[in-house]
Amino acid sequence: MLIGVVASLLFATACRQDMHVQPRYNPYAKTDFFGDGRSERPTIEDTVARGQLHIDQARFTGKIDGKDIDYFPIQITQADLQRGQERFNIYCSPCHGRLGNGHGMLVMRGLRQPPNYLDPRLVSAPVGHFFDVMTNGYGAMYSYASRVATDDRWRIAAYIRTLQMAENAPAPLAQQGANQPTTNTTAQPGTNGEPGGTAGGTK
Ligand code: HEC
Hints:
- There is one protein chain.
- Strands 1-2 form a two-stranded antiparallel ribbon.
- The chain has a domain of 123 residues: Cytochrome c-like domain (Cytochrome Bc1 Complex, Chain D, domain 2, Orthogonal Bundle), CATH 1.10.760.
- The radius of gyration is 27 Å and the shape is elongated.
- By secondary structure, the chain is an all-alpha fold.
- It is built from 9 helices and 2 strands, in the order ααββααααααα.
- Bound molecules: heme C (HEC).
- Heme C binds next to helix 4 and helix 7.
């Protein structure tokens, strides 16, 4: 009986081993199979992995000939702005604050304070600059390229523009925003303290 159990266990482990130890090469192992003796195959020339053909320079670098672009290389709809708002609140607001004024929670806890997005220099900065800061980092701020996908960086940049606009709208535009049909007749962009509230209203 005991022998039977042991034998079946042996059989079971053997089975397992068979499944685990399959013919394979360790990294950089030699092989006789290919003429060059390498088991690792070089990528085929002129092939590009799906989704990695980054020929649209403006969209993937935010620059053309090294200069920040000042337009959005993807279409920005209201849904994109909302996505930008969501991503901004996740990735940027901890330092920059939900209003972009630099009073994020991490700053309250002692981290370096970033500049206010309402700083005239940043209000007049081309949108490509915001994309570039997220992509490559800026001074003490590290890059967000590995965490925030390319098009989401544009959506965040669009949302930053919305924040700047909401607080700083030129009079005619503010008037236009106020004239949007709304249940609150005294609503003015940017006065309700909730940045998201005005994102759609000015469209
Ligand atoms: C961990 C804190 C932190 C987070 C999170 C953060 N930043 Fe920053 N950011 C900073 C600091 C600090 C500076 C100032 C850097 C300096 O001047 O050395 C800065 C600067 C900036 C600037 C101004 C660049 C200039 O021209 O002065 C922009 C724009 C900006 N950040 C955008 C973003 C965006 C967009 C995100 C989210 C994807 C983000 N930041 C996330 C800390 C942060």
